[in-house]
Amino acid sequence: MILRMPSRHLVILVVVALVAVERLFGAGQEPAGQTPGTLVIAGGTVITMDAGRRVLSPGAVATSGPDIVAIGPPDEIARAYPQARTIHAAGRVVLPGLINTHTHAPMVMYRGLADDLALKDWLEQYIFPAEAKTVAPAFVRTGTRLAALEMIKSGTTTFADMYYFEEEIARVTRRAGLRGVLGETIIGFPSPDAKTPAEALQRAAAFIKEFSGDSLITPAVAPHSMYLLEKEALLAARDLAIGNRVPLLIHLAETEGEVETSRRKHHASPVQFLESIGFWAPTTIAAHGVWVDDDDIATLAGRDVGVSHNPESNMKLASGTAPVPRYLAAGVAVGLGTDGAASNNDLDMFEAMRQAAFVHKLVSRDPRAMPAAAALEMATIGGARVLGMAGRIGSLEPGKRADLIVVRMDAVRQTPLYDPISHLVYVTRGDDVETTVVNGRVLMEGRRVTTLDEPAVLKEAQEMAEEVRKAVRR
Amino acid sequence: MILRMPSRHLVILVVVALVAVERLFGAGQEPAGQTPGTLVIAGGTVITMDAGRRVLSPGAVATSGPDIVAIGPPDEIARAYPQARTIHAAGRVVLPGLINTHTHAPMVMYRGLADDLALKDWLEQYIFPAEAKTVAPAFVRTGTRLAALEMIKSGTTTFADMYYFEEEIARVTRRAGLRGVLGETIIGFPSPDAKTPAEALQRAAAFIKEFSGDSLITPAVAPHSMYLLEKEALLAARDLAIGNRVPLLIHLAETEGEVETSRRKHHASPVQFLESIGFWAPTTIAAHGVWVDDDDIATLAGRDVGVSHNPESNMKLASGTAPVPRYLAAGVAVGLGTDGAASNNDLDMFEAMRQAAFVHKLVSRDPRAMPAAAALEMATIGGARVLGMAGRIGSLEPGKRADLIVVRMDAVRQTPLYDPISHLVYVTRGDDVETTVVNGRVLMEGRRVTTLDEPAVLKEAQEMAEEVRKAVRR
Description:
The structure is a homodimer. By secondary structure, chain A is α/β, with parallel strands linked by helices. Chain A folds into two domains: 38-96 and 398-449, Urease, subunit C, domain 1 (Roll), CATH 2.30.40.10; 98-386, Alpha-Beta Barrel (TIM Barrel). Helix content of chain A is 41%, strand content 19%. In chain A, the strands form four sheets. In chain A, strands 3-2-7-16-17-18-19 form a seven-stranded mixed beta sheet, covered by helices on one side. A four-stranded mixed beta sheet of chain A has the order 5-4-1-6, covered by helices on one side. In chain A, α10 (294-302) links the parallel β13 (284-288) and β14 (306-309). Chain A is globular and about 65 Å long. The first copy, chain A, starts with 6 loop residues before the first helix and ends with a helix.
């Protein structure tokens, strides 16, 4: 489109737009990419989630640039890093930042738009029409800013995502300072950003190139599912992932209907169909994994496929319950995810932990089935394993990236305190997170987010919601 | 015990004690029992939960003394009550105070003490020893103050309770300004407050007498369960309830083990055994009701027994899931409860709503099984029906008591807002409650509780927790 506007007006417009964008990202924060200095988080109970599951109470964590450089008693760390900026965490719990292994960030724009419907009605009457009419780069940016704000405020430091215009999600994520494994979606029908799987694969290739080597963004390929893609597109997505050494993300065995469709069409379960075509990449992340049998679990274990368990979404959509204790027994890496906020309806990983601890007790009829520590493990080091990043994140250890959170433990509902791990899972909420650090950079301190302008992000989202309302009005 | 202390020291001690008690209950609040003046809650979305499920947006509620006197458009109410003190609720949601139909308030002192154990180990190694060594009047007062603080801060205005030293719970509850249906426990073994069921029944009779006619406290009788009491004690408890026209509270069909025991001993399910002995009173509140068949449901419906559904506790202890949709279809009144905080681990009724909405979708494999509105109904007017108080509380209507809460709706996780009822159930937490009013009295405004001194209550609980730690140390 050629603009016929007088150039003076155009200049003013551009300036206004730039100022608006600057506002959304907050004032006074350090620029994205700047190397953070030395930081010490001192005092508090440090839950490391390292191999020995060491808990230091009190403990301290020292970071330098993007890395953790030391963990130890507070006085020792203070002596070793006398010049460091210090965040005091006495009475708090310090733990690895939470890892959300499956979401669709911009779908926060659809949270609560429609609930409690049969899956078909929910999708066909609300989600698909809303997506067809609203998903565009500006929408994705607005939604991702809102999602990033929610994640930073609730202690998520890394998230895995599958959506459209993933390059927009990546740009916003990088600027917000979060770590992301972000997969451009390949899907078997015309989507908002690609008419065909081939076009989507081209977009994915360009996206991978743009973010190759980024310190925060791991680009990825996200073929939607085995039921919305043909074999050729699934294998092309795999080849793209393997050729570029990036993760491969897919929805897998989410509903019983998916299994029925697969058996009818391929005479195999979804897992066995993917096995038969040689779908797997070195890092494959399967979201949901609800409807699997022992053979499927053995296959996923043998192929080192990680599973993202999404207990809230699976309950809300009545999909079922992934057999997590059996996955863990078979050696499958399992992380937790929230799924998109349209089916949850938030991105709070504390709720995901609580729900995981609850639901496996219920379905196994054994209160020992999923202890609090196991839920916390899935939300931290387990999630890191799923994403193929256990060498870099998921626990507090010298040499790993400085992704950590400080959580308050003094609410009425957290009193008294006998066991911090029990409290993290059973009575703590995202709102209790006080400080969020990613890659050594402080994204939130004292509940104030430094990389996004909260009021501006909320206002922008409220305005965008008007478009969503129009899209589903009948 | 005779005190040999010099009288001067004794006087000082008494003064110090009185000051300490005063401190726990906060300074500057209106004395308990004082008639509140006229109050208007203006602006905001008023969700009445009346028979027509009227929602006024914006709306206003006027109260006079303990009663709601008018509900209507804000300008109309402002004209009618120009002198009233006004609480502004623009952008908020105003709804009936939440009703917790089953808890054991002082057990907040055991939250997170032990989790994720087989029921027998949890009870025998932790809860029973802790109760045997710590439950005493001072412990019950401390625990109830902590529980009352948590309930006020999370929007619960009425709770039903079963514990020991229930008169202490009642005194603290009245002073904190909450409404309670409080049942003195009758149990078949020596308990902290009674050696025998007969002694417990005497205590219950005295308790009922003390609180007869109280505007906030409804005294009740709480025979623990059909498996921990003989027929004679169950019927004596029933007679006490009927003779004094007070509610009868009991745990019923919570675990499969209870049903097996009942069938072995009585050749009948727990419900049919109670039916066979004519146990029911005009207001009977059965907690849990997980393991029931169609005959049991028909019996409960026919006897007007209300069921308290405790989804979180039933999941955490792996008890099972009450067949709530079938209860509702049969016309049984169903409310929500948290159970004691030892098995939850909090008293947040928003979490109870969310869990109810989630778990019934999962177990019925139908996302339509428990819509958000149905969960909200159980937490308000449904709970009022269970307690036999639907004429007084559970909805916002002129003539009912002024028990209401104002809830913020502007958190990041609540943005955007398409449907306030969806948000109340799926993304709201107790911490979002800004104002709590019971019987026309403001118990919390702007998150500041007026009837309890929060720091003093927390300190007292932390000190008491030391006794709990000692009690379970091995």
